[in-house]
Design a protein that fits this description.
single chain, alpha/beta, Rossmann fold, 15 helices, 50% helix
């Protein structure tokens, strides 16, 4: 077992390694190395970087195994580093850029202040996340790319592992641009879909659904899920929605869904369900980000979700692991 000092210093060193990855992602280093190795001077010119500074970052990246030396002063991309290319399936470039974005970086750096007060230092400085993104279009574009990339493995797991038999109409509550709904509808040609989100979001979803050839089977409806959701559907999907809200607001949303669904309907909550032990888990990392960026948002365990469902007159009936740390929690009316 590693010495405790080694574990702690490994975590401390992680910020330098992340900063190196962030530099690689921001400068597009992986894209420039996609066709083969380059000398540092040429790579710096292509990336718009200061060559001596870039050389020092590349040395750190080489120690991490994402690039390797090639010749006297050149570097090549490794298989591990290829996932930072912007043009490959499963790219994590947008994820790294989002975590290094100014507001997010500030939020994590000010986590001690958040823990002291119980209120997000990010919210105190910038306001609510979506207000912040609305006034920072560059950050919003990075965030959208991050959310799209993050949704891909979850959506693939959803369509492969969940049985949608009996679902004639699916409502994607707070479905964003519609990537998840489109993927589910493509996998189930007899299903109809409704994307429900705020007005300015629904406009973008209509365009995506039309571009996906789904305009005759799907519609985007604008509204506020704290007031109501579209009635009469067989299933309601809430993907990465409930974790944004404290228990009181989460129950309000779930109750509105419960009141709107068809008899025998179901609620499908796609979230990261925390384990009950102290084993490492992606959800524990995500929970600290939620703590830093939002007031009241949190990741929950299966038991905590079961309690929310119970308060909304629903019962947790199944939990399906989707991969990438996420789970699908299915609940039905009591």
């Amino acid at each position: 077992m590693p010495h405790s000092d080694d574990l702690l210093w490994g975590a401390v060193s992680g910020i330098s390694r992340f900063a190196a990855l962030l530099t690689m992602a921001e400068l597009g280093v992986a894209d420039q190395l996609a066709d083969g190795p380059l000398d540092t001077e040429e790579l710096a010119e292509r990336c718009g970087a200061h060559a001596p500074s870039l050389r020092r970052v590349l040395r750190e990246l080489a120690s991490m195994g994402v690039v390797r030396r090639a010749g006297a002063d050149g570097f090549d991309l490794t298989d591990a580093g290829a996932v930072l290319r912007s043009d490959v399936p499963g790219s994590i470039r947008s994820s790294i850029r989002m975590l290094g974005e100014d507001g997010f970086w500030y939020a994590m750096g000010r986590l001690p202040d958040t823990v002291r007060t119980g209120s997000s230092a990010f919210v105190a400085k910038y306001g609510q996340l979506y207000e912040y993104l609305a006034t920072n279009p560059d950050s919003a574009r990075i965030f959208d790319a991050y959310m799209t990339a993050r949704a891909i493995p979850l959506t693939e797991g959803l369509v492969k592992r969940y049985d949608f038999a009996g679902v004639g109409t699916l409502v994607d509550v707070a479905g964003g641009r519609g990537h998840i709904l489109a993927t589910v509808l493509h996998a189930h040609p007899d299903m109809r879909g409704i994307l429900y989100d705020l007005d300015h979001v629904a406009d973008g979803a209509r365009k995506l659904l039309a571009a996906e050839g789904l305009a005759d089977r799907a519609e985007a409806v604008a509204g506020d899920f704290f007031a109501s959701v579209p009635a009469g559907a067989d299933a309601y999907l809430l993907a990465s929605v409930i974790h944004n809200w404290d228990d009181g607001d989460a129950v309000r949303i779930l109750r509105n869904v419960r009141h709107a669904m068809n008899p025998g309907g179901r609620v499908l909550v796609l979230e990261v369900a925390l384990p009950d032990d102290d084993a490492p888990h992606l959800g524990k990392d995500l929970d600290l980000r939620m703590l830093a960026i939002f007031d009241g948002a949190l990741e929950r365990s299966r038991e905590e979700y079961a309690t929310l469902f119970q308060q909304a007159d629903l019962e947790l009936v199944e939990v399906i692991e989707l991969g990438a740390g996420a789970s699908l929690l299915e609940a039905r009316p009591v």
